[in-house]
Structure formats: structure tokens, C-alpha cells
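Intended use. Records like the one below are meant for learning the mapping from a protein sequence to its folded structure. Do not use them to infer anything beyond what is encoded.
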Amino acid sequence: VAGPFAEERAAIRASGGIMFNLVAVYCLEYFIYPGLADRETYCAPSTWYTVMWACYNVGVTISRSSVVLFRIQRVWVLTALQLLNVIGWTLEVFGGGIRNSDGGYAVMAVWMVIVGLFGGASYANCMCRFNEDPDVPDRYRELGINLGFFMSNIGITMATSSFSILNRTVFSPAVL
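Structure written out for the chain above:
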């Protein structure tokens, strides 16, 4: 492989699927928290936004340690489930069916743990795949991980910065 960024292109070819899932799940989970969680708790007592943050982190912490017990080879399933979470949270933000019911915010807090579980499990299993996948040559493992982190930060930035626009348009308090 020759030319500018030849090593990077080779690492992406070898581990692009892993990178895609890492970036996608981060983008999706940061769309939910802090983005959708902020809108979901807009009219709630201020402590609920903090509760959502804590619940998200509980889920992430539990699931990141899960690779000690089991591995998920098809990390795309976690990404797909996180996409369903985004759709569900978006519908909830606009409809409020859960939050407006008795104990609704407690249900949302449990749901936020699930968001964290999918995000943390995806991260941990992607890291395992970067290090153990036989289709990723040893010489590209570290570079693949670094590129994955770099691209994940782009995904996180895209998700969180999109709410600068969305909070003034479709997710503004006037619309909700």
C-alpha cells in the first residue's frame, strides 16, 4: 500500500466495520444523552436530568465490564438497538406518553440505563474485536483503535452540536 495515508486506509479496510459501529453507537447515544434527555426533562424538576446522567453511566459501567463474562461478535446488533432507542426517545420527547404517566420519569430513568448498557457493550466489544479479530492484521490494530477513537469523537461532536440547531427548531420548547 503506497501513497498518502496508506497505512490509515489499510487500517480502515481491515477494521472499518468495527469503526463504523463504534462511531454510530456513540453518535446515537450522545444524541439521546445529553440531547433528547435534555428535551425529555425540560419541564421536570431539575434533578431528573442529573438522574438521567447517573443512570446512563450506571448502564455504561455495567456493560463495559460484561466482556469479562461474554463477548458479542455482531456488534451491529447493539448499534441497531441503539437506533431503536433514538427513535423511541424521539417519539417520547414529542408525545410524552411515558413521562406524563404515573412514575413516568422512573421508567425513563430505567430506559436510560438501557441506553448506557447498549453504548458501553458496543464500546467494550468493539475494543475486543480491534484486539482479537483475526481479520484485522496485527500491524493495523493500534492504528485502527486510534482512528476509531478519532472518528468516535467526530460522531459525538456531530450528535451534540446538532442539538444547537435542533433545540432552536424541531426540539424547541415552542414546538414541544
